[in-house]
Amino acid sequence: MIDLPDVATATFDPTQAFQLHPQVALRDEEFGALAYHYGNRRLVFLKSRKLVDLVRVLEAHPSALAAIEATVEAREFDRYEQALAGLVKSEVICGR
Amino acid sequence: MAVDSPTLRDRFKLGLQAPICLTWELTYACNLACIHCLSSSGRRDPNELSTDEAKALIDEMAALKIFYVNIGGGEPMVRSDFFELLDHAVARGVGVKFSTNGTRLDQEKAERLAKTDYVDVQISLDGADAATNDAIRGVGSYDAAIAAMEHLAAANFGQFKISVVMTRQNIPQLDEFQALADRFGAQLRLTRLRPSGRGADTWDALHPTAEQQRTLYNWLVGRPNVLTGDSFFHLSALGESLDGLNLCGAGRVVCLIDPVGDVYACPFVIHDDFLAGNVRDEGAFTTVWRDSDLFRSLREPSSAGACASCGSYDACQGGCMAAKFFTGIPLDGPDPECVYGHGETAMASVPVALRPGSTVDHSARVPVRLGLSASRS
Amino acid sequence: MTDKTPMTTEDVVEPADEQVTDELLIEEVSIDGMCGVY
For residue C25, which of A83, B138, B272, B327 is within the disulfide window of CB 3.0 to 4.6 Å? Predict the structure, then answer.
């Protein structure tokens, strides 16, 4: 598998507003959460509680960036931005 | 990835708030008598969960945020409340994926299923032609399964699955199974035969040879679109791992609820030793899943045991717990179909007569005569 | 590695805690890749 970070982030614009996809259910687990998309039957594991918190507050912020800044420590901004980019690709979160 | 960081697989081993892959056998009644039936089905148990009890269980699944439930049996469509339960589940946000022999899946039922959202259907078939299939599933069962597929197609149901248990007799038919799936635009699912239920008696005659396992593995490696229900992770020692968790999820990621509400670690260990509790007990299913002694012990980190010195242990994890149990191999021993042959060695020291037998058997007492009512369109 | 291809594509450094890991924060799991599916 070749890493293509530019391709992943190209489709994700963190200045836009996002929300949990309406067809996705989140179930909390000790290590994070499970996200199940009822439409495409895909299951994604969110591997940190912080990421779950971030996904839950997305809709309360005017942009993904604002949500990240409100939830995550500065040294982890990139990491969580990458995670959100992946969640857009998996259709766990979507623009609103 | 850093060697020491816990992987997803490691975390799943320690347990989850609720199963991800819950199997619920609705009934032990079945109008077929497949010779390898993992649940030894045939006769309805008089103590089956009632419609109300089943609905309450579905409500509990919804409360636990179980995303979908795999429904089987016996033959689930012989329950007169099958559609009532299906609708109840879907209405509560619990998706239903059910497995059927197709004998009751006539055109009208196919159309009803096509109108129901969040339902996935899997038709069981164990041979690419009637001779091979019916030798396992009974005369007429192949035709009934194909008819069910035709009904689903005519009803524009959408994609369904064809699920095959791999045997010595049908491994030569891999390409034909794919062709059949392609004919219907269906998804092919191949699973492993375990020596469970009636499979305990027929396993020696039906299970693939070592060479056939390699053939199967090589065929699967080039076909990521073929599903396997993670049932061939014991073959991961042959090379790159197949798709899936590659892990025994019993009591950790998966479990079974049987028709009388008994909760087992997985559908392949319907045996007292793997009974965790009953949904009719106080605390219902949630308590069994989270607090039963059996599941707590399955979630303890386990050792590699006899496989510790084998370089492939990380890939195969010692194989399938159910396969080991019913062939009399210690659970920390090798899988009976270990690709290096260690399982055969282990089995050689266990007389067949001393293998654990079923403690739960609902097999029909007289030969089943197939009165198939599925009409062909 | 045995799990399905992770959805994020870049390895990143430490989590908020002590340990140095390259852990990705999300991972897709195949629901058909779990034993016991009937």
Answer: A83
Cα–Cα distances (Å) from B81 to B32, B95, C13, in that order, read 19, 17, 53
Which of the 8 DSSP states describes residue B250?
A: B
Q: What is the secondary structure of B290-357 as a DSSP string? A: HH-HHHHHHTS----GGGTT-TTHHHHTT--HHHHHHTT--TTS--TT-TTSHHHHHHHTS-GGGS--
Determine the pLDDT at residue C14: 37
CA distance C36 to chain B (A): 6
Delineate the domains of chain A, giving CATH numbers in brackets. 18-95 (3.90.930)
The residue among A24, A28, A30, A49 with the most chain B CBs within 10 A of its CB, best to mutate, is A30
Residues of A in contact with B247 (CB under 8 A): none
DSSP B29: B
The beta strand positions in chain B, using DSSP E, are 21-25, 68-72, 95-100, 119-124, 161-166, 187-192, 254-257, 262-264, 275-278
Q: Is C13 on the interface with B (CB under 8 A)?
A: no
User: What pLDDT, in 10s, does the model give residues A33-92?
Assistant: 999 999 988 999 999 999 999 999 999 999 999 999 999 999 999 999 999 999 999 999
Side-chain-facing half-sphere of B160: CA atoms under 13 Å: 32
Rounded to whole angstroms, the Cα distance separating B107 from B151 reads 5
Of C1, C4, C38, the CB nearest to B72: C38
What is the spatial distance between Cα B21 and Cα B18, in angstroms, rounded to a whole number?
Answer: 9
Question: Is B232's pLDDT higher than 80?
Answer: yes
The nearest CA of chain C is from the CA of B258 a distance in Å of 12
**Residue written as token pair 């399938």:** B320
Of C10, B214, C25, the C-alpha closest to A84 is C25
Which residue in the set B23, B68, B246 is minimally distant from C2, CB to CB? B246
The yes/no answer to whether this complex scores an ipTM above 0.95 is no
Per-residue pLDDT band for B52 (boundaries 50, 70, 90) equals very high
Q: For the whole model, what pTM was predicted?
A: 0.89
**Residues in A touching C7 (Cβ below 8 Å):** 44, 86-87, 89-90
